[in-house]
Design brief:
- It contains no helices and 32 strands.
- The protein has about 400 residues and is mainly beta.
- It has a domain at about 55-140 and about 145-180: Neuraminidase, CATH 2.120.10.30.
- The strands form 8 sheets. Strands 1, 2, 3, 4 and 32 form a 5-stranded mixed sheet that branches.
Length: about 400
């Protein structure tokens, strides 16, 4: 019998799961507890009775953007660690996390490591051709920003760091590359035409062409399940977001899909059957602000709002209905706070969406299931958490 599961996991060898029934033939797993580090990299919170064998894989330094190799035996990630002053690309065998291999040159700054579909090479971006030193970091006095260094170029190397091959050579930001598992082509972000746009090239760096180009900023590219189409999130005004969709089998310009009254869109995801795109939206602020989930047919048509919840106004000091501090912002001012949604994902049969949200009256996060046609979301009581959960589905055979 094939059942559907929701889960979060940290390795192919050791899945981390909190199991309970969702619907008939559905079950769920999440990973959302604060964990304490002990010896041998094992993490455990004494209050947690469901999760076991959680392992910490890195110790020290700043480590981020880890991605699996296709065969599940390795991770590629970026790290700032001694003796390097800024991010470099490393590969790590899951069987021996301490056995790191430097993939990048150890010079300049790098980002966005990604395995090719055949497991033979790693794609990443680096500034080392422009300067062997780390580039000047951006001003983050007003908050986090990501620098668009024009010296970022895309490279390919074997997992041991040998046979380094440049794939781009422009005076523009070229980074954020991902690989198509069908033909090995690479989609990436570039400023070569004056704005952040999506481009595509063959696996060897040849045949550069537009993936999605649209007036305004375009980000978060996602492949359709058959990898014949791309979709992205566009922004051409501070208070208006839209979708951009491109059929890669023709030379027609991308299709722009206006989503009326959505000021922000994120977490777009293509249904496994390729028929729909779902995403999370936010509306105007303050008290009229709504957060919710929408779907739109991939071949055209009007979008449908499956769920929307309004902003709330906590009691002074951050308390909400007698529950203290959860919404505290450090002052007693009463503020309109939009509810949050995260972890949006489709079930493999494309009939349900799952997500994490704090829309419940108690202010905590729960995992919810929602039919594709809309309706009342089903909250899974055992998933209560102080933090958003990341959730995913998979088929299992029993």
């Amino acid at each position: 019998m094939r059942n559907l599961e929701l889960l979060s996991e940290v390795s192919h060898a050791s899945s981390l799961a909190l199991w309970f029934k969702l619907l008939p033939y559905f079950s769920i797993a999440i990973l959302s507890a604060p964990l304490v580090s002990h010896s041998q990299g094992v993490l455990h919170d004494e209050r947690e009775i469901h999760l076991t064998e959680v392992r910490q894989l890195t110790f020290g330094g700043e480590n981020a953007e880890a991605y699996w190799s296709p065969d599940g035996s390795e991770l590629v990630f970026q790290s700032t660690r001694t003796p390097y002053e800024c991010d470099q690309i490393f590969s790590m065998p899951i069987s021996d996390p301490a056995a790191l291999t430097l993939v990048s040159t150890g010079q300049g700054r790098t980002t966005c490591g990604y395995f090719t579909a055949d497991n033979e090479r790693i794609i990443f971006s680096s500034t080392h051709a422009d300067s062997l030193q780390c580039p000047v970091p951006p001003d983050r006095s007003q908050g986090y920003v990501w620098p668009l260094y024009e010296s970022f170029q895309i490279y390919s190397a074997k997992p041991d760091g040998s046979d380094l091959v440049p794939l781009t050579d422009t005076n523009s930001y070229d980074a954020e590359a991902t690989v198509c598992s069908t033909d090995g082509s690479i989609v990436f972000t570039s400023t070569r035409d004056g704005d952040l746009e999506l481009y595509r090239m063959d696996a060897d760096g040849s045949n550069h062409r537009i993936g999605i180009r649209q007036a305004g900023h375009v980000e978060e590219p996602i492949w359709s399940p058959d990898e014949s189409r791309l979709a992205g999130i566009g922004l051409d005004h501070p208070w208006r977001g839209f979708l951009v969709m491109k059929d890669l089998t023709d030379d027609l310009p991308p299709r722009r899909v206006e989503l009326t009254h959505f000021t922000h869109i994120d977490s777009i995801t293509w249904s496994p059957d390729g028929a729909y795109i779902a995403g999370i939206f936010r509306g105007p602020q303050p008290k009229e602000g709504k957060t919710g989930i929408f779907t739109i047919p991939a071949d055209g048509g009007e979008h449908q709002i499956l769920l929307h919840v309004g902003a709330i106004r906590p009691h002074p000091g951050g308390g909400l209905r007698g529950i203290p501090t959860r919404y505290s912002s450090g002052s007693a001012s009463r503020r309109w706070l939009p509810k949050r949604m995260a972890g949006l994902c489709w079930s493999p049969d494309s009939n349900h969406l799952a997500f994490s949200s704090d829309m419940d009256e108690d202010g905590a996060f729960y995992v919810y299931s929602l039919p594709r046609e809309g309706g009342s979301p089903l909250a899974l009581g055992a998933t209560r958490s102080d933090w958003p959960q990341q959730v995913m589905w998979r088929w299992v055979t029993k």
